[in-house]
Amino acid sequence: MTQPLNADLHCHSVVSDGTLTPEALAARAHANGVDLWALTDHDEVGGQQRAIDAAQALGLKYLTGVEISVTFIDTTVHIVGLGFDHTDPRIVTGLNDTRDGRGPRAMEMGAQLAKVGITGAYEGALKHAGNPRLVSRTHFARFLVESGVCRDTSEVFRRFLTEGKPGYVEHRWANLGDAVRWITQSGGLAVIAHPARYRFTPNEEYALFSEFKQHGGRGVEVVTGSHSAAEAVRYADMAREFDLLASRGSDFHSPDESYTDLGTLPALPADLGTVWSALAHRVH
Ligand code: AMP
Ligand code: MN
Ligand code: MN
Ligand code: MN
Questions:
Q1: Above 70 in pLDDT, residue 1?
Q2: Best of 76, 112, 136, 171 for a ligand 1 pocket test (most atoms within 8 Å of beta carbon)
Q3: Whose CA is closest to atom 11 on ligand 1?
Q4: Partners of 42 in beta bridges
């Protein structure tokens, strides 16, 4: 039997909330046996050219990537875009507009944390952000670990920064249809990221999948770092039911924080169509 392609189409660099550079990630993916890689920074394509160049230098196949924050039925949903033209003004402008909300949100998070006695969190988070235009909860989490408030970032997300906990600031991200269109109009393919992570009712989840398809979305992450084996089975079924292509990605952020390393995921079920089969013409 031939080995399935080791594709890893979801990870983060210092350009968003990862701790490694695009070059270090390319080297790590290559060393771990990845055959096809995509860097998918949150709401930002500033690392794409570096990733393309680094992959090319290693002889590693590459698809452009991004992970767009979307608000759907008052819930934050992540849409991964793959294989688009990262210089297309439609995706560049759309992402620029979504990113703008992060600055005021981060200042408000800092103010909320100050109310429970944690001072200097905004400045502390900013120091961890490789990209000052992309301050995320992960950067606050690293500050809270560094300052001894929590032992690790998982403890931070249990005690702070999530709904109902100190430091959580409600935020409106992009519309689902807009995000899917930025990706597809720039020549790429849109994918629902880590679907098991959203707390939707079955009806709401059905609405997400059907509206995503109506807007032109084509794929779903079936195998990803945060899915259990049972969840992968469940979303393989959803891919069949909604006639979506399957994607696979570790969602690797950092050697110190991520449980799943680049290129170490289980294979996709063999009967599913893959996102990369539809993106052969977009591979660098
Ligand atoms: P933001 O886009 O600023 O809301 O930050 C979201 C990021 O926080 C995600 O992409 C993850 O990297 C991280 N995150 C969210 N929830 C958790 C969690 N429970 N454990 C660890 N990291 C988390
Ligand atoms: Mn992240
Ligand atoms: Mn995500
Ligand atoms: Mn991610």
A1: no
A2: 136
A3: 138
A4: 67
Q: Round the average pLDDT of the chain to a whole number and report it.
A: 97
Tell me which residues have their CB within 5 A of the ion that is ligand 3: 78, 193
DSSP one-letter string for the chain: -PPPP-EE--B--TTTT-SS-HHHHHHHHHHTT-SEE----BT--TTHHHHHHHHHHHT-EE--EEEEEEEETTEEEEEEEES--TT-HHHHHHHHHHHHTHHHHHHHHHHHHHHTT--SHHHHHHHH-SSTT---HHHHHHHHHHTTS-SSHHHHHHHSSSTTSTT------B-HHHHHHHHHHTT-EEEE--GGGS---HHHHHHHHHHHHHTT--EEEEEETT--HHHHHHHHHHHHHTT-EEEEE--B--TTT-SS-TT-SPPPPTTS-BGGGG-GGG--
Taking the CA of residue 257 as reference, the ligand 1 atom at the shortest distance is 21
Tell me: the pLDDT tens digits for 71-122? 999 999 999 999 999 999 999 999 999 999 999 999 999 999 999 999 999 9
**Which amino acid type is present at position 125?**
A
For the Cβ of 253 lying below 6 angstroms from any atom of ligand 1, the answer is: yes
49 lines ligand 1 (CB under 6 A): no
Judge if the beta carbon of residue 87 lies within 6 A of ligand 1. no
Calpha distance 85→122 (Å, rounded): 34
Number of H helices, E strands in the chain: 10, 8
With beta carbons less than 8 A apart as the criterion, state whether 267 and 6 touch: no
